[in-house]
């Protein structure tokens, strides 16, 4: 939805899901249960060494899952999201700040976690950009969000939201992993989960970021950012 100057927000908030909002990597849990951790890590390493694209990594790993949806739900029953994330959603609602989830993960897994942890109002306020999961029996496949080598170009999704407004908003991005590097480059305010891959990449490459441990800190910093914009 396009906005006029009077309704253009000062900034938008965009966040990764797996390992950032979720406290566990749902993909790793399910692929490890199917193909084993050693095989999954071998595929991960092929990507890290530049031998395959991230899109190919996902094809190989998700096609290796041999679980029914019911079994997957059971395996993820103890997987949770950051308990302070709901506070960030409420802050964005109260201040009319757009909030988007940009994920290389799968829609049904994201929905599963949010439906257990958020209210209907919170769910309806967020916009989710992700790949789509198709499960037929115990066979899993992905319908990718776009044609990029990433499968979902999260940076492009962020730009798509920012471009809706006549007055360009600042971008707050929150992430944790290597797949968030391109998104981080779109950010005016970058939050990287402390000690994980994105934080380490920023340290190595001299990229300014704000390390965080939980979303309680994010809410505090959003208040401070809002006060200066």
From TrEMBL:
Keywords: Hydrolase
The keyword Iron is annotated on this UniProt entry: no
GO MF annotations in UniProt: phosphatase activity
Pfam families with a match to the protein in the record: HAD
Source species, domain of life: Eukaryota
Keyword Hydrolase recorded: yes
NCBIfam families (alphabetical): DKMTPPase-SF, HAD-SF-IB
Protein name according to UniProt: HAD-like protein
Species whose genome carries this gene: Linderina pennispora
């Amino acid at each position: 939805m396009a906005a006029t100057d009077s309704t253009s927000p000062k900034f938008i908030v965009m966040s990764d899901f797996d390992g950032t909002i979720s406290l566990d990597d749902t993909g790793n849990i399910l692929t490890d249960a199917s193909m084993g951790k050693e095989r999954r890590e071998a595929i991960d390493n092929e990507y890290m060494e530049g031998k395959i694209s991230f899109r190919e990594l996902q094809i190989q790993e998700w096609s290796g899952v041999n679980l029914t949806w019911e079994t997957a739900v059971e395996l993820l029953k103890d997987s949770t999201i950051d308990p302070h994330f709901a506070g960030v959603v409420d802050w964005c609602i109260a201040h009319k700040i757009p909030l988007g989830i940009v994920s290389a993960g799968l829609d049904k897994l994201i929905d599963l976690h949010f439906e257990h942890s958020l209210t209907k109002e919170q769910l309806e306020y967020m916009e989710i950009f992700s790949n789509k999961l198709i499960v037929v029996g115990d066979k899993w496949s992905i319908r990718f969000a776009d044609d990029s080598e990433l499968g979902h170009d999260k940076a492009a999704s962020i730009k798509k939201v920012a471009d809706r407004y006549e007055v360009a908003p600042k971008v707050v991005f929150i992430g944790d992993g290597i797949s968030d590097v391109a998104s981080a480059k779109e950010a005016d305010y970058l939050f990287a989960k402390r000690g994980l891959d994105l934080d380490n990449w920023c340290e190595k490459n001299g990229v300014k970021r704000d390390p965080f441990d939980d979303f309680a800190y994010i809410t505090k910093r959003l208040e401070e950012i809002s006060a200066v914009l």
